[in-house]
Write a structure and sequence with these properties.
Elements: H1 3-6, H2 24-30, H3 75-95, E1 100-102, E2 109-114, H4 118-132, E3 136-141, H5 148-155, E4 159-164, H6 170-178, E5 187-191, H7 200-219
Parallel strand pairs: 2-3, 2-4, 4-5
Antiparallel strand pairs: 1-3
Helix pairs in contact: 4-7
Length: 221
């Protein structure tokens, strides 16, 4: 028997959460207060309707719209929409998967990484501890926009190394752009873009080199 026949795929029974979609009961509850881009709940996320249902339909031009999805060039409508999107972004921080944090008491150095860098970072932390006596905390990013705990993690450490597998330090740029600007100086890049999979030694060597440079700066040598 074919494997796919012996182990047929089954769909999950839990219904998919499609967010704030209007149903008949919600339409009656909101009544005339509903508009496609109205922030009724204060979270920046408007209720939406789906074509082919009993919910109200709407048409939106991409060049500019007001709360009712009507075309507009009014500056106050534009400002209102931009402010709503900022609230939506702030709400998203609480809904996306939260970072996984491994704090080490007394550690002055933190590491931030994400994706397939994770296992190399874990091994590099062992190398740093066993070979150089350097304890490190670790925050594994799992989503963007960044949750507030990312700033908290940076604030708890004197130096934070951002490990990423690209040439330009894109994640470091996002952390500096979206984070607390007073913490930017604590962030440093550990970049890997040789075309080979990232390895622990390439992380630990760079961190130790940067730690040595930091010690010389503090010592004034």
């Amino acid at each position: 028997m074919n494997t796919w026949m012996a182990h047929p795929f089954t769909y999950p029974t839990k219904p998919l959460d499609r967010g704030k979609v209007l149903e008949e009961a919600k339409v009656r509850e909101l009544g005339a207060s509903w508009g496609r881009y109205k922030d009724i709940d204060g979270d920046g996320i408007p209720w939406r309707s789906l074509p082919g249902t009993s919910a109200p339909s709407f048409f939106t031009r991409g060049s500019g719209h007001n709360d009712m999805a009507q075309y507009t060039e009014r500056p106050d409508d534009y400002v209102k929409n931009m402010d709503r999107l900022a609230r939506k972004f702030a709400t998203a921080k609480t809904l996306v998967p939260q970072p996984i944090v491994q704090d080490v008491a007394g550690a002055a150095v933190g590491i931030i990484a994400f994706g397939s860098s994770h296992w190399a970072v874990e091994e590099a932390r062992d190398q740093l501890r066993e070979e150089a006596g350097l304890e490190t905390s670790y925050l594994r990013l799992r989503a963007y926009p960044f949750a507030d705990v990312v700033n908290d993690f940076i604030r708890r450490h004197d130096r934070v190394y951002v490990v990423e597998q690209n040439r330009d330090g894109q994640m470091l740029g996002l952390l500096r752009m979206d984070g607390d600007p007073t913490l930017s100086a604590r962030l440093q890049s550990v970049l890997h873009y040789s075309g080979l999979p990232i390895d622990a030694r390439s992380i630990s060597d760079v961190i130790l080199e940067k730690e040595g440079a930091s010690a010389l700066e503090v010592g004034g040598v």
